[in-house]
Design brief:
single chain; 26% strand; two-stranded antiparallel sheet; globular; 77 residues; alpha+beta; three-stranded antiparallel beta sheet
């Protein structure tokens, strides 16, 4: 079955089953807006709770993780 949001079932989404890079989490404490957070708690993306899709959340997390990984990769000698 789907995940639960504010008493309504979300078809096709089991909350907590989305694939996120290590340290990323989806903050759903606000019923209207969800925040994708990094391990340090900083926000990386915002989603309207009523229109968010698992794929969009996963894509935003992957893209942010990839950008941050490239920034922290030492250059080749």
């Amino acid at each position: 079955m789907g995940g639960k949001r504010g008493g309504y079932r979300m078809r096709g989404w089991d909350r907590g089953r989305e694939w996120l890079p290590p340290g990323y989490r989806l903050d759903t404490s606000d019923a209207a807006a969800w925040v994708l957070r990094r391990s340090d708690g900083t926000a990386t993306a915002y989603f309207c709770a009523w229109g968010a899709t698992r794929e969009a959340v996963e894509r935003a997390a992957r893209d942010d993780h990839r950008r941050r990984s490239k920034r922290h990769t030492p250059p080749y000698p």
